[in-house]
Amino acid sequence: MRKGIQIVVIILLGSCTTPQMPLVNSVIRLSNDTIEIGLLPEVGGRLVRVSLAGQVNIIQSDSTLWNEPPGKRPSLDPTKPFKSYNGSINWLNPQSEWWVKQDSFPELKAKRSPWPPDPYLTYAPYKIVAQMAREITLISPESPYTHVQFTKTYHIEGNKVLLTTSARNCSNDTVSWGLWFNTRMNGWDQVFVPSDSVSLIKSTDPRKPGENKPALAWQNGCYSYITPLNNSNNKVFKGKSFFSPASAPVIAGFKANQWLIIRSNLIDKSVIHPEQARIELYIENSDNRKEDLQELEMQFAYEKIAPGSSITASQTWEILPGTGLTTKNELGKELMNHLKIQGLD
Fold first, then answer.
1. How many CB atoms lie within 10 A of CB 12?
2. Which of 183, 226, 237, 281 lies deepest, with the highest CB count within 10 Å?
3. Considering only CA atoms, which of 125, 113, 120 is closest in space to residue 168?
4. pLDDT at residue number 228
């Protein structure tokens, strides 16, 4: 366990909340009778597990990496190889500005490098500053690259998880950033963006020779990528789509007969940085199914942050059991019916 990280186990007698036992030594578990989540404070304070109680993990994260010894944890040097822990993480937007506010790595600054994300926010150990039966709050180190410090709070209630992230300007100058939530599922899981057909802004073309553009379809009031057939001759499909929904944003993923429905508040599209969109959906499909990804992303307002001030954004996750349906058409209808019942379609 790294210095500054403390795991607190709270047992509430007579409470329906399950005692907070680690899934493995480095992962903290919050659960109740309905859902469970797992957090990895030592690597970016990220969420690495979410499911109905006792069920398969919905999000993509390699559990063999969760309990690595300190010597195998990733470096905070952005020139070192990137290590994919996946799960759900926060970045800053826009991506093109990740390295323009620092001078330690002039090559990254000069080419406005879009990769990697700030390792102080995504790889560094987070300190637990508060923990209760259903809630935990963690803070990152202060980043010398983007000049912010993240505070993350995870709260569970019933079948919902509330994720709140704040970015505090820890420099002496005003900086401009927006918050970005990125949740990864497997590239072959079913993922939907409920919205009007006109909400699609664009879909990008593949970036490298040999990559193919995945098909995006709108059906039953949802956008969704169409996964390729098994006989696609080992082709690689990669693409990203950008959406500006007219109503409060929703992204839904389905895995192992469980729904993960991600929601946030409606904000004016004019406050989103022009290089980004309120909802972004990225996909990779290949013959390496275990490692393939979909990224369920939401962008928040790009704002000026005065020294010592903060910006805050949040998502609400709802975890629901499926009804045994499996086809994209059936699942799209089931999702829209659920949203209609809740008055959110």
1. 13
2. 183
3. 120
4. 84
